[in-house]
From TrEMBL:
This is SulP family sulfate permease. The chain crosses the membrane at residues 26-47, 54-75, 81-111, 123-146, 166-193, 200-221, 255-275, 330-359, 380-411, 447-467. InterPro entries: SLC26A/SulP_dom (IPR011547), SLC26A/SulP_fam (IPR001902), STAS_dom (IPR002645), STAS_dom_sf (IPR036513). PANTHER family: SULFATE TRANSPORTER. Residues 436-545 form the STAS domain. It comes from Rhizobium aquaticum. Keywords: Membrane, Transmembrane, Transmembrane helix. It is a multi-pass membrane protein. It is found in: Membrane.
């Protein structure tokens, strides 16, 4: 059972954990930690909090994600997708409000896991995730323009994209050539490392070289030290956030948004890991692990935790075999914090902005976008709507709008595949006569209808218009449902209306081939004896009204 509530770490221990696996996991954990170190600080700064909070998130939240989660390879930590939501929460409610919202979101995630809601996340349409991710990439990049170009601004930077761009344009005269050069150098190093040494930690090397360059040349650029005074080199003491009913009500919308986005992001990341490894995650257990991780992160002053797709993919490629790699990744980040914290003050903010600019570029899945625009106008509309709502309105609204449009598109496509054929005297032979070989009868007293396809609310109106043609001249009405794999209550209601009309006109109603599930739904909607007679096959229903199939002679039908 793939969705049982047992952490994958427990499953791994039951399998038997060997020293060779520990070595592989340790190497993978170190690789991911090197990637996570600059990213965690950059995401925290861009989210409007101090850099160490990003590290606390990777350490404490990341450890719990691997310990209690439902994926073997998931790497938890701060994610770029949360930057906009976290920054908005901090602006409205302060850091204490953010920490309380993070803890409440953890409770929501735990509840969702125990309610087994994780399996429903997979129903989010692919164009929605592509458009959503691309929109986040644009928003994050817009937030990095200030540090990328070393702008000297006054007042608070607006949140909405257009207002932000107009505001930043007003300060373009303050562009720092030195900060811009550091950002360009950082991005160039990352690209060169990716091109020629893809197995090396390009992000960390780029940030390290930029820091050395800025320090040796004495460049006048803002650093972690000048803005934040550095980062602490000690483990924080766990503290409960400030709690009050008033503050909890204020941050409740943020907590809901954190939980919704966290569940989507983490389960998508787990799906990516499944595709790369051939394994299967436990979605509900993953949500529980993410929930406990968010509560743990909040206790230690961290921000929102979620599964991170890029770091999880790095973990798989680095040869991880179990959740131990994710736990060791957190231990390595903690070691870096304790040992190298004094060096962090030399890191230029322009270098971290360059790292995030590179991440944003990769978040826009250009090949996927091109493929969706080529494949279907409907998918292109869903993608575009999600993207535009995300960048101009709100992340959660973008997901909801995209999901609703995707659902309507699915309904429209499925409804086209539902067919209802009116056969006043054209009956169908059973399988022994060959698949769907028609034979003709001249009996004017029997009306025959066959429904094919998934019969649901999207096709209810179409089918109803056909069934409404039942005439008084018929004595028998056979409804063949043998080609209906599923029907919902709307479909059953349509059939109930047709049966009611037939019964009122003294017409005998026979339903053939309905599956047990379909019959259960029909009977629950009052389609049952004595108004209706059920038969397992069409042949049995035809025999009940004394219709006998004629003899077949090759391809010719003899009536």
């Amino acid at each position: 059972m793939t969705d049982r509530l047992e952490p994958k770490f427990v499953s791994v221990l039951k399998e038997g954990y060997t020293l060779s696996r520990l070595k592989a996991d340790a190497l993978a954990g170190l690789t991911v930690a090197i990637v996570a170190l600059p990213l965690s600080m950059a995401i925290a700064i861009s989210s409007g909090v101090t850099p160490e909070r990003g590290l606390y998130t990777a350490i404490f939240g990341g450890f719990v994600v691997s310990l209690l989660g439902g994926s073997r390879f998931q790497i938890g930590g701060p994610a770029g997708a949360f930057i906009v939501l976290v920054a908005a929460c901090v602006a409205r409610n302060g850091v204490e409000g953010l920490i309380l919202a993070t803890m409440i979101s953890g409770l929501f995630l735990i509840a969702a896991g125990f309610l087994r809601l994780g399996k429903y996340i997979k129903y989010i349409p692919y164009p929605v995730t592509v458009g959503f991710t691309a929109g986040i990439g644009v928003i994050i990049f817009s937030g990095e323009i200030h540090d990328l170009f070393g702008l000297t601004t006054q007042g608070k930077e607006p949140g909405p994209l257009i207002d932000k761009l107009i505001y930043l344009y007003g300060y373009m005269g303050t562009v720092s050539a030195q900060a811009t050069a550091v950002a360009v150098f950082t991005i160039a190093v990352i690209l060169l490392m990716k091109r020629f040494m893809p197995n090396w930690p390009g992000l960390l090397i780029a940030v390290g070289l930029s820091s050395v360059l800025a320090t040796v040349l004495g460049l006048h650029v803002e650093t972690i030290g000048t803005r934040f005074g550095g980062i602490p080199d000690a483990i924080p003491v766990p503290n409960l956030p400030q709690m009050s009913l008033d503050l909890a009500l204020k941050v409740l919308p943020d907590a809901i948004a954190f939980a919704l986005l966290g569940s989507i992001e983490s389960l998508l990341s787990a799906v990516v890991a499944d595709g790369m490894s051939g394994r299967r995650h436990r979605s509900s257990m993953e949500l529980i692990g993410q929930g406990v991780a968010n509560m743990t992160s909040a206790l230690f002053g961290g921000i929102c935790v979620t599964g991170t797709i890029a770091r999880t993919a790095t973990n798989v490629r680095a040869g991880a075999t179990s959740p131990v790699s994710g736990m060791l990744h957190a231990v390595f980040v903690l070691t870096f914090l304790l040992v190298a914290a004094p060096l962090a003050k030399y890191i230029p903010l322009a270098a971290l902005a360059g790292v995030l600019a590179f991440v944003c570029y990769n978040m826009i899945e250009k090949q996927a976008i091109a493929a969706l625009f080529r494949s279907s106008w409907g998918d292109a509309i869903v993608l575009s709507a999600t993207f535009l709502v995300v960048i101009f309105r709100d992340l959660t609204e973008g997901i909801l709008v995209g999901f609703v449009l995707g659902a309507f598109l699915f309904i429209e496509r499925m409804a086209k595949h539902v067919q209802v054929s009116e056969q006043p005297g054209d009956l169908f032979a059973d399988d022994s006569e060959g698949p769907e070989k028609p034979f003709r009868t001249t009996d004017p007293d029997t009306a025959v209808y066959r429904i094919s396809g998934v019969f649901f609310f999207g096709a209810a109106a179409t089918v109803a218009s056909v069934l409404d043609r039942i005439a008084d001249r018929h004595k028998n009405f056979i409804l063949d449902c043998s080609s209906v794999p599923f029907m919902d209550s709307s479909a059953a209601n349509v059939i109930e209306g047709a049966v009611r009309k037939a019964h009122r006109n003294g017409i005998r109603v026979l339903i053939a081939g309905a599956s047990p599930d379909a019959r259960s739904i029909l009977e629950a909607n009052h389609v049952k004896a004595p108004e209706v007679e059920y038969f397992a096959t069409f042949k049995e229903a035809a025999a009940a009204v004394h219709l006998q199939p004629p003899r077949f002679d090759g391809a010719n039908v003899k009536a």
